Amino acid sequence: MSETVDIKELNERIQKESAFVDLITIEMNKVIIGQKQLIESLLIGLLSDGHVLLEGLPGLAKTLAINTLAKTIDAGFSRIQFTPDLLPADVIGTMIYSMKKEEFTVKRGPIFNNFVLADEINRAPAKVQSALLEAMQEKQVTIGSQTFKLEKPFLVLATQNPIEQEGTYPLPEAQVDRFMLKVVINYPKKEEEILIVRENLAKNFPEPNRILTTEDILKARDVVKDVYMDEKIEKYIVDIVFATRYPEDYGLVNLKDMISFGGSPRASINLSKAAKAYAFIKRRGYVIPEDVRAVCHDVLRHRIGLTYQAEAENITSVDIINDILNAVEVP
Amino acid sequence: MNKLFNIRILVVLMVVLLGFGFASKAQITIDVKMDTNIMLIGDQTKLTIESSFPANFEVKFPIFSDTIIKGLEVLNISDFDTSMVDNNLKVKQEYLVTSFDTGWYEIPMLDFQITFPDKERVDTVQSRPVYFGVVTMPLDTANAMAITDIKAPLDAPLTFQEVWPAASIALGSILLILAIIYLLLKLTRKEAIFVKKEKPKEPAHIIAFRDLDILKDKKLWQQGKLKEYYSELTEIVRAYIENRYAIQALEMTTDEIIDAFRISGDLVKDLKDNLFDLLVKADFIKFAKGSALADENEASYRFVFDFVTKTKPVVILRDEDEKHQENEISEPIEN
After folding, report:
1. CA distances from A247 to A299, A302, A324, B9, B244 (A)
2. Do the bridges between strand A181-185 and strand A212-213 make them parallel or antiparallel, or are there none, so unpaired?
3. What is this model's ipTM?
4. CA distance, residue B269 to nearest chain A CA (Å)
5. What is residue B69's three-state secondary structure?
6. Residues of B in contact with A290 (CB under 8 A)
7. Fewer CB within 10 Å, N or C, chain A?
């Protein structure tokens, strides 16, 4: 009985603590028209301490969305435009010799901020990508002999363009896996695009208000961690991830030849964290199967390796995830 | 006198030696012959080379590979055929030959090397030349100016060996065409290609009622196993929906099931709302350790029972004159 009371209390706490979600959404909606799913995904990344990779065609407000989110929070924000001639030192910083002091001093790079927008991450060479991804994983940076902890919250929001692959350095699977979510942005709806055109013609660009501090985010993250996840949901999550590895065990024999590798345990962890954050956004103190399914595509799409046969048959990881969701029994 | 005596001795020796030579050669015979003296161009005939000699002699036959003489081609060479006749060895070899040039041919004398029994003396015996002619088809000189058609091929009776490859291909093609027609018919009618005979499936409501009875007998919520109770209750209703409406409810979340009903329009609003309430309550109990009163548990059970009762297929009895009854699935009576 006491556990039931805890859930009720948690529900009430979440109702209270998650009020800012609506405020952020309102502020972002002032600037971003449509792209509801993008905003939700950014909030999931923000609340579950997971980095987000945005993929979409140019002009779909990827950078604007991240900029706007950063503006609603009183936190450090930097933007790094990734180019082929970028160096790791341009991202993490370097040691500079001071003639006056006759010693080397550390010049911190733009990564020393709460929110880092890595724009067009696949345009920089592998060494720069690894420098950034190492910082993402370890939440610390080493310059010379000194190691610096990155300030919390630390969130990397990277964008990449699915077309124009010439002159790009695609992220290896192991590095893409470090992004909690890979969000694919689609075109806005017709009515949304009409509004976008009107606002641009009128040069009416509203500025979002700063409504949150970093402390609020860290506090909200603690609440998200407390969101209750029943063992049935845990099993459901593990079943989904296992179905990406052994589809034949779930009656999906046809997928066996389409998948070269399935989701790692990191996929299960991130699916759980993202489902909790989604439940929080929906102002619920417990996770239901809807939450898992809502975040499943963003968490798994970059963690399923496709075979040549799948590519030849134009089968995408999203098709595979859909098949898996239709086959794994909901608790 | 002495000179005359010497000449006599020499003549006697020559006669003896010649006599000995003739005697030994007389035991060796060489025979080269053809089966015919005149052959048609392209026709085949046999050239036989035969020798008979005492068993303690050795006779070396001439060796031919692809031609005997220019224009006479060898098609096949037989093995040596050896037999013993009256202490004489008889060796025979046959060549199957042909020619594609008309004219007269001469197979010249062939050399056969003979080795005497002492293995020291060697002699050569030659065969007689063989003559033969190769001719073309005789012309009908009486009708030399008449234009005649090419002679038709000879009709030979068909054998099974000749017929079976074509027959099997024809039969296979017919079977393949029939199979394709069968598949196309099945696909256009959207029927299963291979129909597995299964025992008739129980109607969805029969399964649901039976499972509800089993659930009632388990008395789960009475034992405090509320989560198990609602898990099983919702599984029964989901399985019923899946079997009754072909909505994949077991693999769907609450929202998805209600959305599916909204799209299909199979349920009236009240039933849909109550189903949604039940599933949400069950989710709360299953995933949030929620609680429910005894009345609520019984009401949930009653709702599932009523839901199945109200939505089960209605049995319509046809006219008795038709001598048989058919079950037809009609729209739920609530509609």
Report:
1. 18, 17, 8, 117, 27
2. unpaired
3. 0.71
4. 22
5. strand
6. 253-256
7. N
